[in-house]
């Protein structure tokens, strides 16, 4: 086999310019794909991180039907004390869960004593919320970030701050209906201004959960949602399945499901953008396959055509057809390996340079996001294997033709 | 035992509705260590006959035995294997592999066809290169040597496997007179040394003068040309 490799390598070297052109084409394809995967992957990871780590968490648990009516923030679909206990018990069994935060979501009237507007609020326990959404404090544009907030304080969204000219330290009043319809009001001091981000809850304000309970006159334990942060986002499918099995299957006395469990993907519209990025990556890979297939096949067809007499000679002196086949397949294989090796090296160096130069970009209202392209070994191995495999497949037809060539006809060829 | 035995050998080509009888019921035998030529005008069937003896083209009918084996019904794979084991080829255009050195060209059948062990193979190749006077050119590529040297390398490649039979199709056609004589002498010397049978298809009178047996092919039929005592053809 080593001899076949030696002979194949020399044949490639014999047609230096053609080998160089084909390998360069493969190299360009590999570089494009690997850089696209790394940059789009970095963008995706950054955006997913922003969404999950500053707002949604990785998984959310609600009472069945809550999510369908989340626009009206229904208080009659909150989880009860008994249900919360059950969830806490289940979460305690999950090693992959790093933290969770209980939230009451509510709508209220926001008044600065001059004008009034509507506001959507998340009421949280600050310590739990900071563990579950560790990037939340990064969204505080003005005001103290430490410990998030205390009872009697409110974080208001940037839009309301600007629209109603409310500053940090100002007093405001919140007026809310409880689930029975009675109205209550409470004074708050503006602790900070929250940057809005795209997606559900991205423009909500925030108060302490105890303030929400007093404002809504909730006496028993009651929450709208439980947001969960995992130790590693890659554990998401496994934990989701496990929670779905344990909680999703739980039924009430009427035989109806009690809980609904959702991953961030189900809740955030960004997931569709992430899916689109994956789809684009897939098509870029298809293009790479096409480049390799066409270029290798073209060059191997030419190689066979130009060496017909030589094929006749080696066939005449007793070279078995399968060895002739191997010879041409190995030529395609080597070209694939050469293009992939150079392409992968260039890609990895480019990724390192991009990380070293700290490229920043803007996305929507978010500015100065740091691009940190990375590429996993799995992606590199996948691209390498695909390219080399396609190179071999593309060589098969010309190689087969060479192996099946009639020695007499081949020897007559000039 | 004869190296080649042909009985009632027929080769017919079919082109559309037309049947062309290239070889018509020929009978002949070739003894070991002989120097034999097939001569005849163009289209008489010389190359066809040589191709059949070389297992490159199966006969349409009749019996053809080479090195004691009936080769009439060998499939493609077995024919290739048989050629690799028993037959050497010398071509008009030398047909050395351009990306291999002279040494590697001679080594090729031992390495790619017969899988000889490394040391034994190298020793054998050097032995053959010395025998054809090409040892000092071993590291050169075919493009770096003359036509005569290429043909000597080709003879070494044909003999390196201890082939019982070497088929040479117009081996001197592309050589000048002096080089052609040198190559013919070399092949004769190799025949004497290794007891290999050389079968030529040729127009070259220098080869015909040197061979012991000449078969004349005319329109697919064969007859043996007897040599007179003085060396003239009868």
Explain this structure to me?
The complex is a heterodimer of chains A (414) and B (234). With 414 residues, chain A is an alpha+beta fold. Chain A contains 13 helices and 14 strands. In chain A, strands 3-4-9-6-8-7 form a six-stranded mixed barrel. Chain A is elongated, with a radius of gyration of 31 Å. The two termini of chain A are 29 Å apart. The model of chain A has no long low-confidence stretch (mean pLDDT 89). In chain B, helix 3 runs parallel beside helix 5. By secondary structure, chain B is of the alpha/beta class. Chain B is 35% helix and 27% strand. The longest helix of chain B has 18 residues. The interface between A and B is medium-sized, with 23 and 29 residues.
Tags for this model:
heterodimer; A: alpha+beta; 6-stranded mixed barrel; two-stranded antiparallel sheet; B: 234 residues; alpha/beta; 6-stranded mixed sheet; 4-stranded antiparallel sheet; 7 helices; disordered C terminus
| Strand line-up in the sheet with most strands of chain B | 6-7-8-3-9-10
Number of helices of chain B: 7
Structural class of chain A: alpha+beta
% residues in beta strands of chain A: 15-25%
Query: What structural category do the secondary elements of chain B indicate?
Result: alpha/beta
Largest sheet of chain B: 6 strands, mixed
The gyration radius over C-alpha positions of chain B equals 18 Å
Oligomeric nature of the chains: heterodimer
Task: Give the proportion of residues in helices of chain A.
Answer: 40-55%
Stretches of chain A where pLDDT falls below 50 for ≥5 residues? Answer: none
Q: Which H/E pattern describes the elements of chain A?
A: HHEEHEEHEEHEEEHEEHEHHHHEEHH
| SSE order of chain B | EEEHEEHEHHHEHEHEE
């Amino acid at each position: 086999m080593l001899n076949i490799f030696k002979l194949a390598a020399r044949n490639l070297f014999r047609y230096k310019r053609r080998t160089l052109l084909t390998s360069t084409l493969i190299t360009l394809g590999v570089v494009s794909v690997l850089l696209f995967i790394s940059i789009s992957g970095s963008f995706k990871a950054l955006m997913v991180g922003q969404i999950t780590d500053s707002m949604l968490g990785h998984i959310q648990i609600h009472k069945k039907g809550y999510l369908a009516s989340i626009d009206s923030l229904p208080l009659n679909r909150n989880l009860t004390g008994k249900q919360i206990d059950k969830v806490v018990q289940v979460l305690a069994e999950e090693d992959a869960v790093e933290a969770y935060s209980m939230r009451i979501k509510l709508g209220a009237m926001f008044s600065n004593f001059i004008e009034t507007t509507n506001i959507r609020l998340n009421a949280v326990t600050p310590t739990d919320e900071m563990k579950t959404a560790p990037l939340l404090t990064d969204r505080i544009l003005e005001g103290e970030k430490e410990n998030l907030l205390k009872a009697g304080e409110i974080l208001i969204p940037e839009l309301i701050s600007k629209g109603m000219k409310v500053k940090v330290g100002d007093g405001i009043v919140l007026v809310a209906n409880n689930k029975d319809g009675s109205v209550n009001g409470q004074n708050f001091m503006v602790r900070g201004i929250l940057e809005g981000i795209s997606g559900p809850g991205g423009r909500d304000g925030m108060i302490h959960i105890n303030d929400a309970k007093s404002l809504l006159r909730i006496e028993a334990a009651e929450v709208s949602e439980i947001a969960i942060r995992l130790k590693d986002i890659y554990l998401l499918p496994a934990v989701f399945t496990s929670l779905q099995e344990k909680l999703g299957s739980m039924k009430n006395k009427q035989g109806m499901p009690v809980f609904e469990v959702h991953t961030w993907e189900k809740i955030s519209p960004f997931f569709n953008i992430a899916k689109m990025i994956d789809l684009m990556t897939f098509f870029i890979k298809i293009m790479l396959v096409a480049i390799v297939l066409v270029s290798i096949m073209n060059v191997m067809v030419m190689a066979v055509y130009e060496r017909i007499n030589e094929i006749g000679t080696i066939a005449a002196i007793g070279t078995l057809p399968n060895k002739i086949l191997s010879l041409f397949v190995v030529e395609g294989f080597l070209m694939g390996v050469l293009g992939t090796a150079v392409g992968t090296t260039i890609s990895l160096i480019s990724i390192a340079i991009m990380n070293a130069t700290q490229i920043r970009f803007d996305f929507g209202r978010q500015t100065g996001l740091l691009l940190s392209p990375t590429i996993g070994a799995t992606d590199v191995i996948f691209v390498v294997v695909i390219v080399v495999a396609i190179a071999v497949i593309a060589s098969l037809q010309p190689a087969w033709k060479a192996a099946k060539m009639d020695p007499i006809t081949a020897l007559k060829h000039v | 035992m004869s190296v080649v035995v042909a009985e009632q050998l027929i080769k017919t080509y079919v082109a559309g509705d037309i049947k062309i009888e290239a070889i018509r019921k020929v009978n002949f035998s070739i003894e070991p260590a002989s120097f034999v030529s097939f001569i005849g005008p163009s289209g008489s069937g010389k190359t066809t006959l040589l191709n059949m003896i070389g297992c490159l083209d199966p006969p349409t009918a009749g019996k053809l035995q080479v090195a004691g084996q009936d080769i009439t019904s060998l499939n493609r794979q077995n024919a290739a294997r048989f050629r690799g084991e028993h037959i050497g080829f010398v071509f008009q255009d030398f047909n050395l592999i351009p990306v291999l050195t002279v040494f590697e060209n001679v080594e090729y059948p031992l390495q790619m066809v017969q899988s000889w062990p490394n040391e034994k193979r190298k020793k054998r190749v050097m032995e053959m290169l010395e025998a054809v006077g090409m040892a000092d050119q071993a590291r050169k590529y075919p493009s770096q040597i003359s036509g005569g040297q290429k043909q000597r390398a080709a003879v070494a490649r044909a003999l390196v496997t201890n082939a019982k039979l070497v088929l040479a199709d117009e081996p001197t056609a592309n050589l000048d007179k002096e080089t052609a004589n040198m190559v013919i002498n070399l092949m004769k010397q190799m025949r004497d040394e290794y007891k290999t049978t050389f079968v030529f298809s040729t127009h070259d009178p220098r080869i015909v003068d040197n061979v012991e047996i000449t078969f004349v092919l005319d329109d697919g039929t064969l007859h043996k040309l007897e040599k007179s005592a003085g060396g003239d053809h009868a």
